Amino acid sequence: MTTIHIRTFNICSSTSSITSNTARGRLLTALYTYITLNLLFSKTTSLVIFLIINNPYRTPTSHPGFALSKSKQMKPSSHPPTTYPFPHHNLKHSSSKHEGGKLITGSPLGRSTWEPIQTKTRNSITRTLGLINGAQNLSTTLYIHNSTAPPSPTSTHNPSLFTFTPHLNPNASDCVYKLQKLKEYLDSPPPLTIPPSYEKLTTKLGSATLPSLTVPCTTPLESLFKGTLFYNMFQDSSGLWYGDYGGPLFLNCGLIICWYIFKEEDILGEDEIIMLKHYLKVHKQNDGGWGTHIEGGSTMFGTVMCYVGLRLLGASRTEMEDSRKFIIDNGTATCTSSWAKFYLCVLGVMKWESHNSTPIEMMLLPDWFPFGPGRMWCHSRMVYVPMAWLYCKRYVYEKADDDEIIKQLREELYGEGEYEKIDWKKARTTVAPMDNYSPVTYMMSFVMYLLSFYESMEVFKPLRKYLRERAFKRAEAYLIAEELQTNYICIGPVNKILNMIISRDDKNRFERHKERIKDYLWVAEDGLKMQGYNGSQCWDSSFYAQALHESGMARVYPENVERLYSFLEGTQILSTPLSANSPAMFYEDSKERVKAFRHVSLGGWPFSTSAHGWPISDCTGEGLKAILALRPYVEEGVEAGRLTKMTDSRIFNAVNVILTLQNCDGGFATYENQRGFKWFEWLNPSEVFGDIMIDYSYVECSMASLTALSDFKVLYPDHRSDEIETALRRGKGFIKSLQRRDGSWYGSWACCFCYGTWFGVEGLVACGEGGSENVLRAMAFLKSKQCENGGWGEDFRSCYNKSYSPTGAERYGDSQGACVINTAWALLALIKGGEGDSDSVERGIQYLMKRQLSTGDWPQEGISGVFNRSCGITYTSYRNVFPIWALGRFRQWKERDTTNTLRFSTNLS
């Protein structure tokens, strides 16, 4: 196979090929930096800044930092003791469909939408199936309906079916979706072929298709079997498992503002408006405010955004009185964060003078320049460019001055009669302490001052006009490239909405954007929300594939495995005929890819769907591991023509993506190589998010990539073997460098130290470090955090504060602070580290069994995901996938053949 060489912006290699000499690349980048500093400052100042930037004794670039001071620690959420009945709606989940005709491109596989339906609920029957979700948010009886409509809680059968009690737990449990899938499953159970050796177990625990509610599990194997049987009932016909990926509250308000500006029903229809309004209302807190996410205490960012969103959706001024008081008491909307100020300016309830200069001219900076969009983390870049576009156009909702709601908001957000008196320029630098997670640095303040000077001085007007005309053309080409590469899904919900606003005058682009809004929406007991991505389909399913393999359950459920394999095979980016024929393929050409600052995509796996189009290192690693793990189980289906064969060339493409994503430090970042410097963080303007300016190397991304390479090496020992050995050696060193003194690793993408430590241990063992001093320290750390009842627990405070939550998961876990998901992560790490026979593992397994519900489910506890250090995000699948995996790994440990421990043994029964 021909090796694909990529022009990249890796700081190791500057703009040269990724295979260029690392030392040479570092020298070139250092030289460019020094020359640039000399152009801006005196020689002495330049030398001092250069030495600070390149100090070899500083904290490594990708180190997440240490515990925050108490003054910055997060205030937990506090909700009024209110039970919220679920509003009537007429939405039904639909999967893998393209109903937009020619407006929608890319593969439909994995697409998730909630569609309006015409059929009202008819003849309903009751099946007593116990608790799908535990006692927190769902009644004990599940209503299964004989129609195609979802259950209607307004019917006379059970008006309180979907009640939501955020004071007990603000995390929804996906009951709306699960009841729909359960109804489909019971109406038409899929064919199952249970091996004869499991017939006795099947009979004891219920049947091959339905778990018994009265027979308790007495062994880990029974708990594993029942948990797998339950979760398999919710597999979609396309092979994946859908789940709620909501949590951030501010995302909904960007969507609402877009809908309000354009007043188009196909952005938000009547049912969506009802459900979205419900969602914002139920997450309102005691003090009248909202958090940035559902578990965080009230912030000005969350409160201002949600207040505006509800008022635009039709909430009255009277019912928002306590929220208005919260805003005024905390300094008015002038004290919210810069992101909220941006949206307020677009809507016309704040003047653009209050927003710091965001020049589109940055798009003209050359590749070699030490700072620029191409060197930023792609999520920041994708938000910065449309923000800069709208700022430089001074875009404002065209009817703002005549709109009665807008006029009222101008009074409500600042106080009566105050709007025209505000010093808007002063508001640029005001931010409430509760929003100030990542304070703007002195350097950034100085840069903002310079940009403000450039923006306001008439002498620069001809230059601004000249540069901006060219920058707008460059930015437009870049935004269109993003839309085509993602089939108008866009990388995330923020730039999705901003790109959509920008495209309003281009009917074709705007209509294509509208068709993809539904991809981001999800309905649960707390209402309709805009998710943090268009789902987590591939990510969740990749983990579950490995859990099925390692537990031996893949042999028990061959039909489920075939469907799962089919989804993962079809989700590999630009690797199926349909995806290869999408517009995104044009940008795989090296010249076009470099123009769009993109890394190679061909052969990678996404977080969500193939149509999304952005490959990620850990998603590619987990996707590759999942495919390799499932291959032995699907050989018959491939030979019979039911399944598509995953060719070696496609496997090699995935390995190429992984190898080319390794950074100078030996670690792996998310979407791209680390192209910038740690000092970029000094220019972070967001206040509410931390470590967002460059694509850092993470222990999670590194483990997923290294374990995938390790697994690949077993099956393909001759393919790029030297490169893989080098990657494993360098990656091992990076993972060790991130380990904390107490033996833990900080988890950047979930809560938090149990998660990070699991990844650290998995990565080191895959690199041949089993039993090493680093692994032993990790084992000691995990054992030190075990609760008396055998479980482990953390909540979101661990992520935010960068220190282990002092009361564990006490808020939404059990009374001792333990919870299911963290326990599963700790067990996975301990067993992988060789502690499978320890008392800690035995107690942890017993904890998982005790917490398991009679259906085979586990309770929904606290929020488990995180991004940008300060924002929680939901993964409802985690409560099933990881306990099953931990029980399965424990089973494998107990039944292991010490003479044959190959990961890909096909002899597991």
TrEMBL record:
Signal peptide limits: none
Molecular function terms from GO: intramolecular transferase activity
Transmembrane segments: 31-53
InterPro entries from the UniProt entry: SQ_cyclase_C, SQ_cyclase_N, Squalene_cyclase, Terpenoid_cyclase/PrenylTrfase
Protein name: Terpene cyclase/mutase family member
GO terms for biological process, alphabetical: triterpenoid biosynthetic process
UniProt domain Squalene cyclase C-terminal: residue ranges: 538-892
Cellular component per GO, a single term: lipid droplet
Residue stretches making up the Squalene cyclase N-terminal domain: 235-484
Keywords: Membrane, Repeat, Transmembrane, Transmembrane helix
Protein family membership: Belongs to the terpene cyclase/mutase family.
